[in-house]
Amino acid sequence: MLIRKLIRVALLMSCIHPFCKGTAGSRPDLPVLPFPQNVVQGEKRVVLSHRASLDAPGLEKAQLARLSENWEEFSREQPGGASPMRVGLVLLQEGKTSSRIRELAAPYLDSLGREGYILDLEPGTITIAAGTETGLFYGLQTLKQLVRGGWNTALFIADWPAFETRVIYDDISRGPISTVDYIRQQIRRLAELKVNYLSFYIEHVVQPLSHPDFAPENGKLTIAQIRELSQYAEQYHMQLIGSFQSFGHFEKILALPQYAAMGETATLISPLDPAARQFLENVIGELCDAFNAPWFNVNCDETFDLNKGKSKAYIDSIGPARFYADHLKFLYDIVRRRGKRMMMWGDIALQHPEIPDMLPRDIVYLTWEYGDQESYDRWIRPFEERGLEFMVCPGILNSYRMFPDMVMARDNIRGFLEAGKRHGATGAFTTIWDDGGTYLFSGDWYGVYVAAEKSWNLAPAPERSFDRRYSQTAYGAADTRYVEALFKLMALRKLTLTYNLNELVWSQQLLSRKGKPLQLNNTSIPEANQILEEASSLIRQARAVRHQSDLVALELSIDQYRLIMDLRSTLVAVADTYRQAASAPAQARGKLLRGAIAEVQRLTIHLDALLERFRAAWRKENQEYWLDVVSAGYESKAAALRELQQSLEESLRARPVTLPPADGIGLAITETPYTYFQNWLLSGPFPSSGGSLPGFLYSEGNEYNQPPSPGAISVFDGKNYRWRKFASPDGGLIDLEDYYKTGKNAVAYAYCNIRITDDEATEAYISGPSGTELFCNGEKAATIKVTGETEEKVSLHLKKGGPHHLLLKIPATGSTPWRFSFRLGNGLEVINHKHKYQTNSKNKTYEAE
Fold this sequence. Notes:
By secondary structure, this protein is α/β, with parallel strands linked by helices. It has four domains: 2-159, Chitobiase, domain 2; 243-361, Glycosidases (TIM Barrel, Alpha-Beta Barrel), CATH 3.20.20; 489-670, Four Helix Bundle (Hemerythrin (Met), subunit A); 674-839, Jelly Rolls.
C-alpha cells in the first residue's frame, strides 16, 4: 500500500507538460505505442502470457464476450503455448468498485474520461480499470503490446487521450481504393493504436442504390459493404465517418454523359440545378445512413471555379461567399435530417471570413495544412476567435511524390496537433492523400503511427524512443532497420533530381522522341546512388514478424528509384555507344551494338520484374481499379526499350553502311549540367495572326489579370482559357506544338515563380521562336531574336527574396517548331515543387501541396 501511495505522489508531482500530467520514471524501452500518459516501473518480476482468462464480475456478459473475443483473436496469432494469466477487468462505478481500485484510480478520475484506463501489473495480479468498456478495451491493447514486447517487470500505467476524437482519413478516390478485407486490416491495426475513427475521401468510388451508375465497376464500396464495415469497426471501438465531395472536385462524376448537365463547371456541381440538388440529397442521405459515426463530412474544399461557371452573373450579384454559404446550408439540412452533425473543410471559410457567420454554429470545421510551419495560427485562430468547433488536420502526402515525405509528415503532425490542442481543437484528423494514384497504403504506416501517438499523447519526452517503439509494436523487431532505411530514403528529398521526392523523375521520357533532342541532367545520380545503396542495405536487413507488407512497399520504392538512376545513366551511355558505333569499322561496330543491346535488354528485364512485384503488392491492398493506369508507367518504358532493342538488333543483322540517325530510334540523348525549368502553368492557345502577341499581361480586364494559380482563368477576346499545370516529359524542352496539337497562328503563355535564396540572378538562357517575350514581375525583360534550339542569353534582375513572377509569351508562326526552354545563368541551380522554384541554397523550402 505504501508503494502505491508513493507511486501516486510521484505521478501527481510529474506535471511538467502543458497537455498532460507528465511521465514519471518512464522507461524508454517500454514497448507501447501510443506512449501512456503516466508510467511507473517497479522492481519485481511479472510473468505475462498471450493466453489470458479475463475476470470481470462487474461487466455484462455481452461486454465481457466482446473483450474476450478481441483478446482471443490476438492470442491465436501468437506462436507457441503458454501458461494462462488472469486479468481482472474493473468498471469504475460509484459504490460498486473495491476500495483498493478506487484508491488506485482516484488521482486520475477527472482525466480518465470514457477512454482512459488504469493498468496495474504486479506479481500474480493484473488489473485493468476504466469507466467504460472502451477504456478497458484500450487497456487490453496496451497489455497486448507489453505481452508481445516481452515485458517482465511490475508496472503502473494511468492513461487517457489528449484528443477525444482521433481520425485517420484515407484518400480512396485518386487511384488506390482498398479492398474490404484490407479495410478490416486497417481497422484492427488502428484500433490497437487507440485510433477511434476511420474515414475516407470519397468523390465517386461509392455505389448508392439511388445512383448506382457513377462508381467504377472495378473499384467501389457499396452501401452494403459500408454498413458491414461500420458494424465491424464497432467491435474494435471505432466508428466510420461518412464523407462525400459535395461541391468541387466533382469532375469524375460530371465527366459521365448522364450527369454532365449537373455541372456548374467541369469540376463543380451546380447548387442551383434541381437535378444536382436531388442527386446530392439522395447520395448523401444513403451514405449518412450507412456510416455509423455521428458526423458527416461534406468536404466542399478548393472550389476553384466558384464564380467561373454558368451561374457567374448570379454569383457576382450576391457574392461568392453568400453563394457558397447557401449551398452549405442546403447540405447542412440534408445531414441534420439524417441525425448527423456536418463537418466541412475550412479553407474556403478562411478565404472568406464572413462565411461562418452565415452558417449554423454547430458545424465542425476541418482546418488543414500539411507543411512544417513555424506557426499554425492562420489555420486555427480564425475559428478559435469565433468560438467555432474545429479539428486540426495534418497530412501524410503521397501526392505527386514517389513516396510520402515522412520528415514533413512527422513535423507537421507534431506541430499542428500541439498548436490545435493549445487553442481548443476538439479532434486530431490526420489525412492521407494520394493525388497521382500510384501509391500503397503500406508505405504510409510510419506516419499513421506518428499521428496515433500524437493524437493520444502530446508530451515531447516519448519522441526520443518513438522509432524503437514503432519497430517493436509494428513489426516485432528488436532493431530499427526499417526506420533507418525509411529516413535514409528521405535524404533524396534534398537532391536536385529527386527534390521533394517529386514523381517527375519517373514520368519523364528516357528515350528521345523523333525530331526532339532529350537532355538529361544526371549530376545528382552519384549521390542518389550512394543514398539508395545504403537504404537498400538497411531494408534488406530489416525483419518483421508481422506487417511484412510495409517492408515490401518501402523496398519497392527504393528499387524503383534505383532503377530510375540505372535507366538514366545507362541510356546516356547507350546513346554514346551508338554514336561511337556510327563511325566505327564493321567489326568494332558489331561489338558496340551487341553491348548496347545487352544493356537495353537488362533494363527491360528489371522493369518487367519490378512491375510484377508492384502489381502483387497492389493486389494485397487494393481493388483492380487504376492498376492499369499505374502499370502503364512501367509498360510504356518497357515497350520503348523493346522497340529500341529491336532497332539495334536490326542494325546488327543488316549491317548497313550508315546506321539510322539517333533521333530516329530514341537515342538523341545527351547529358547537361544545367537545370532547366520543366514545370509551368500554361494558358492558351490564344488565336494569333502572324505571331502577334496579346497586349495584356495575364488576362484581359482586371478580374484575372494577376499571377495565376492552377485552374485560374485568362480571358482573351471574351473567351475563358485555363491556366493548367504542365510538367515536361522531354527534359527542359517544352513542346507546345505537341501539347496543343497545333503549331501556327497561336500564342501560349507560360508562368512560374521563383524565390532567390542566395545570390542575385542576373541572367537567363532562353530558346524559342523569334519574338518570344519574357516578363519579370510584370515588366518586359527581353524579346528573343534567335529562332530555334539555340539559347539566347538575356539579362535579369532578380534580387534575393520573392516570389518573383516569370511570364513567357511564346508565338507559333508555323515556320519553326513551337518549343521553348528556360534556365538561369550565373551557375545557379534551382529546385522546385510544381511551378514554384527556388535557387538551391542550404535552407530549402519543402512544399507540402
